[in-house]
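4.2 Preliminary Data

To establish feasibility before requesting continued support, the project team ran the inverse folding procedure on a target of 282 residues. The structure was first converted into the token representation described in Section 3, and no sequence information of any kind was made available to the design step. The complete token record follows.
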């Protein structure tokens, strides 16, 4: 039987948040997972927040699949540091949150804070993200941090489940010659032997504009970046500029990485269970 994945979903009970939760429920339907609904009480009444969380918990349990276990937790005002500690030190593999268009400064600040302080995989699900069977993912990685791609191996079953067409956007100091790019292709195949992908290369000049262009042209549904990689800055800029009518329909996934995790993956030791379909190894 496949192992259980733990997901923390941060909710504010808005329509966007509920739509983002529906996306998570759909994408994890055939997987064994614990989904924790988490709410941070800011200015609203704590008792009302608890009632809203209990209601959301009951509603979500009604639509959960056999493999989805739904739980909840609430943090009161002043417990922000405790919430971050809980997210970092509990056995969550993924932290998820909805991302609104035209986010307020407070919303952008809160989400930017999560990106900077949470040492787990983090996904931002935007307003308007479509739930569908066939998906496109763009994985962006600096050529100097190619080993970050070992982290993708933890999600190969998930990509297959979503019938995902994958593009790897490789950043380098200069545009690589064909033979050098082929060497990188062979290295990537060594890291991800079971993954089918399209490899493209851009240099650092205007790379963010080139990435935006590729995303629009490809119709990307999921953009994957790595913590402490060059492209994490792209993620932060996108969030911080979100109140300037910049609309995007793809989910942003920031994969957490550190040298110890990657070295263990090279040895075949996973820091947490791979995401596998519910019937795998049953």
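Position-by-position output of the design step:
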């Amino acid at each position: 039987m496949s192992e259980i994945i733990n997901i923390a979903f941060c909710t504010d009970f808005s329509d966007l948040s509920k739509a983002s939760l529906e996306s998570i429920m759909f994408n994890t339907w055939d997987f064994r997972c614990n989904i924790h609904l988490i709410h941070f009480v800011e200015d609203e009444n704590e008792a009302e927040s608890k009632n809203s969380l209990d209601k959301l918990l009951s509603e979500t349990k009604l639509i959960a699949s056999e493999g989805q276990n739904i739980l909840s937790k609430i943090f009161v005002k002043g417990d922000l540091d405790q919430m971050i500690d809980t997210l970092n030190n509990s056995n969550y593999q993924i932290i998820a949150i909805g991302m609104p268009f035209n986010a307020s400064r407070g919303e952008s600040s809160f989400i930017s804070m999560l990106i900077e302080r949470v040492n787990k995989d983090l996904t931002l699900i935007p307003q308007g993200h479509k739930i569908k069977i066939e998906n496109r993912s763009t994985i962006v990685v600096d050529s100097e941090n190619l080993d970050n791609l070992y982290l993708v191996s933890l999600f190969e079953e998930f990509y297959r489940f979503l019938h995902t067409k994958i593009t790897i956007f490789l950043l380098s100091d200069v545009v690589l010659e064909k033979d050098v790019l082929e060497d990188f292709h062979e290295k990537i195949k060594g890291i991800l032997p079971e993954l089918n992908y399209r490899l493209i290369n851009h240099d650092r000049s205007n790379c963010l504009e080139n990435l935006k262009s590729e995303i629009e042209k490809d119709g990307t549904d999921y953009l994957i970046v790595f913590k402490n990689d060059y492209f994490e800055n792209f993620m932060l800029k996108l969030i911080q500029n979100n109140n300037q009518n910049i609309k995007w329909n793809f989910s942003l996934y920031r994969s957490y990485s550190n040298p110890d995790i990657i070295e263990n993956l090279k040895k075949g030791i996973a820091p947490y269970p791979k995401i596998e379909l519910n019937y795998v190894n049953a």
